[in-house]
Structures are given as structure tokens and as C-alpha cells.
Design goal:
By secondary structure, this protein is an alpha+beta fold. It has helices at residues 22-28, 80-96, 103-112, 148-153, 192-196, 205-211, 216-238; strands spanning 5-9, 12-16, 52-55, 62-63, 74-76, 136-138, 163-166, 173-176, 202-204. Strand 7 (163-166) and strand 8 (173-176) form a beta hairpin. Helix 2 packs across helix 3.
């Protein structure tokens, strides 16, 4: 088996190990390909398609986060076709999702000249803020369904499986099984889902309360009260059931 593969990316000769993705091979020579759903510590699933590139001989654009390199492959990362595809993806996201707290995606929109008014009749994805625990809030109006939070909650990190996709089509969003509040699931509040979220759909509770104008003293009181209630519920659940007279 060969130790390295030679290919061309944007006219530059590149050598990389077999099994390397186009995204990683490009990064090795300083060529940046935009991504949303990709994360270095998450399994790649090619969901957002922002990382598509043009490969000579391929009929369709190729998602570089999952496509492996091959000998003699010729890749173009910024052709007009590629830029048009990325711009359209960004415009569709901007017309359906609140990207106000997604700085990386906003930067991509500026780079590719994406217009958030491109599809004026598009239906906005609006969800109520879920505030059911003392650690963080969930605002799925900002969720781009990148799957990062699901990945780290499952095999990529925590093996907790507290959240997953729910619904179908336009109604798809991240949720818990049977729509249970997080304290009633297997969630251990490790915070890894919050750390990988690219849009602030998941946000630390204290940060969110500060943004709501609450004082630090109010925040401490609120979060402590929630923790006490949670501890009482857990203690009650662990009590053995009492039967009738023996």
C-alpha cells in the first residue's frame, strides 16, 4: 500500500496519506474550505454541504469533509459553480434560521455575498426558548441542524444519548426522547453540546440570564433554587416505593 497520494488542489500539488479527506488535504497546504456542520472532534456527516468542491470528472459537487482523496485527483475549491452553491445554501439558512449569534456563518455570508432577503416567502423556523434546567437554555430558532450536539452526546464523546433528531422535513429539530425536560433524561449536563454549537442555539444559563438584564445576585439565586429543586426531585425518585401493611 502506498504511503502517500499525490493530487492537485487549486493548481497546487499536494501529498497526503491514504484515507485523508479533501478538506484535510486542502488544509495541509493552507487552503481553507468553509464548513458549518464539520468539527474536528465530531464524526463528519456532510449535512450542511457548505464544504462542497468541484472534482474533475465528478458529475456533482463533492462534500470535502467526507470525500477521500485519490491518486491524480484534481480538485477546485472556489470555482463559480462552487461559490454559487455555497451562496445559495447560506441564503436558504438565513431566511429560515436566526443567525444573529452565529459569527462564523455571518462571516461566510459576507465572503460569498449571500443576501438574507433572497427568499422573502420562506417560512421562518421559530421555536420557544426551552428553559428547563439550571445549566443552559435551548433556543432552536437558532439551530441549523448541524448535528454536532447529537454527536458529542453520543459516540463521539459522552455516550449519554440524551438528545437526537425529532420530527421530519421542515419540522425536524433537536429534542429529547418523548420531549422530556432535560433533567428527566440521561443528560449529565457536561456542557459538551454547548461547546460545539456554532450558532448559540445552546447557551449557558447564566450568560442567557445576564443578556436578559438579570443581576449577578439574581442569577445566583435563580440557579441555586433550580439546583435545589432538582436535587429534591432526584432524592424523591430514589426513595423505595412503600407498599401496604406487611
Amino acid at each position: 500500500m502506498t504511503d502517500s497520494i499525490t493530487l492537485t488542489i487549486d493548481g497546487n500539488p499536494v501529498q497526503a496519506a491514504p484515507g485523508t479527506t479533501i478538506l484535510k488535504a486542502a488544509a495541509s497546504v493552507g487552503i481553507e474550505i468553509p464548513t458549518i456542520c464539520y468539527h474536528d472532534y465530531c464524526t463528519s456527516n456532510a449535512l450542511c454541504r457548505l464544504c462542497v468542491v468541484e472534482v474533475e470528472g465528478a458529475r456533482t459537487l463533492v462534500p470535502s469533509c467526507v470525500a477521500k482523496i485519490s491518486e491524480g485527483m484534481q480538485v477546485s475549491t472556489h470555482t463559480e459553480r462552487v461559490k454559487r452553491a455555497r451562496r445559495t445554501i447560506l441564503e436558504m439558512l438565513a431566511t429560515t434560521v436566526d443567525l444573529s449569534e452565529a459569527p462564523d456563518i455571518q462571516a461566510y455570508m459576507r465572503e460569498y455575498g449571500a443576501r438574507d432577503e433572497r427568499f422573502p416567502e420562506a417560512e421562518q423556523r421559530i421555536s420557544p426558548v426551552l428553559d428547563d434546567n439550571p445549566m443552559y437554555i435551548r433556543d432552536y430558532s437558532k439551530c441549523v441542524l448541524c448535528w454536532r450536539c447529537v454527536q458529542v452526546c453520543a459516540e463521539d464523546a459522552q455516550y449519554t444519548y440524551a438528545i437526537n433528531f425529532t420530527g421530519r422535513g421542515f419540522e425536524t429539530q433537536i429534542g429529547t426522547f418523548f420531549e422530556k425536560p432535560l433533567p428527566e433524561t440521561t443528560c449529565v449536563f457536561c456542557g459538551q453540546c454547548v461547546a460545539v454549537c456554532p450558532t448559540n442555539a445552546l447557551k449557558p444559563k447564566r450568560q442567557w440570564l445576564l443578556e436578559q438584564g438579570r443581576s449577578p445576585d439574581e442569577i445566583m439565586s435563580l440557579t441555586r433554587s433550580e439546583r435545589r429543586r432538582r436535587m429534591r426531585r432526584e432524592a424523591a425518585a430514589e426513595q423505595p416505593a412503600t407498599g401496604g401493611k406487611s
